[in-house]
Amino acid sequence: MSEAASTRTPVALLPSLSPLLREWLPRQRWFAGKGRPVTGFALVAAVELLPVDSTGPGLLHLLLRVRQPGQTLGSRTTGRTPAGKRDSGTGGDCYQLLLGVRAALPPYLASALIGRVDEGPLAGRTVYEGLHDPRLAGLLLERLRTPGRFGPLRFDRAAPVPGGLPARVLDAEQSNSSLVYGDSYILKIFRRVYPGINPDLELPLALARAGCGRVPAPVAWFESDTPESCTLGVLQPFLRGSQDGWQLALKALADGDDFTDEAQALGRATAEVHTALAAALPTVSLSGPQTEHLATAMNERLDAALRAVPALLPYVRGLRAAFDAIAGATFDGDGRAQRIHGDLHLGQALRTPDGGWSVIDFEGEPARPLDERRRLQPPVRDIAGILRSFDYAARSHRPWNPAWAARCRAAYCEGYADASGSDPRAEAELLRAYETDKAVYEVVYEARHRPDWLPVPMSAIQRLAGPAG
User: Fold this and answer.
1) Segments of the chain assigned to CATH 3.90.1200.10
2) What is the pLDDT of residues 87-110, one digit of tens each?
3) What element of type H or E holds 463?
4) 395 φ/ψ angles, rounded to the nearest 5 degrees
5) In 3-state terms, what secondary structure has residue 222?
6) What CA–CA distance (Å, rounded) separates 249 from 407?
7) Distance between CA 78 and CA 230 in Å, rounded?
8) Which of 6, 11, 81, 271 has the most CB atoms around it within 10 Å of its CB?
């Protein structure tokens, strides 16, 4: 994305907003740079989706590059980091903001307040999070209903969208923001944006073309040209009355219920998604050089984890053995790399009121560079994510119920094999490597963010690596 702003607003806009945004941005759950101060901004693009005047609210759409220590503004970044090298953060992260502007903020929008502008083109006006304003959220839906361009923004749709639907913001979102319209549609707003198509648009579109009904098909979306295209938001059907797999698993544990039927059905749904993705998009054979690269990357992530969490050190020999077992190997079974979900766990699976499973959120791990998230990978990576999720659910319950997790894991793999013809347990070394890699990631995450949860992935480390050395 270019640093030259495409805007109908005065050039003084950013300096007048900077003091407010410097305080507000780090408090947002979707802001990725927590713990580091904001030292500067660069305006990538600014558009008045609703002109700012004296008669009512205005809506500013901003793409803003944020500078933090170790980053420099004015240089382009692809988010691409060479293997074995530390990401310098050159260029800063780019965020999408939708700012409401009013002369005064009504009481029902008090929680959305960003601040009052002291100088510049918005002097004397109040700026707030525009997604919380029903009128501005409705305007965004109207833009999506009418394909076309609006400055550097492009709005497109795959099917008609009704108008006049009331909007509400979902509070559960973390790395992005979501609006629900009339309990019929959900609009995901990508907060941290990258050049290129987001997998959460690309893969559901491909699955819809392939006739796969396991994923809600995109209805409309919008992107930007600045000058590189990037995905900003996707509108999909809202699966009203659905329950996510994580909450269902916890309820089953609390009630003492078996979960194997649900796990088996989820395995079949996962296999159907993988099969459809393999038919719709390119695949490659998983060759020796590729598995060598996979093992090297896993060992590099382990090296970083050992520096961050010394509790892993007694298990390092067994952990490396899990990774080295796949280095240079070829696999006779389902030995392919393809597009996958990339961040699959029980929270990304919804059981609909009719009892079926749907898979959502194909964005992958938002902290990873976009080109890495779009890379071809073995389907077993997704499978390992679900298996780890069963472990987490069982460990979240008191007393710990490892037998419950083992039954769910086996049932899930059986369901996957029934639908795909390939049992992931047949390639035990590849599955173990991906489970181990996931557990190492979990150890680092929990040590940094939820130390009380550290025993959950550490129990998996002990199981996968064998006795401590």
Assistant:
1) 243-465
2) 333 478 999 999 999 999 999 999
3) helix 455-465
4) -75, -20
5) strand
6) 13
7) 12
8) 271
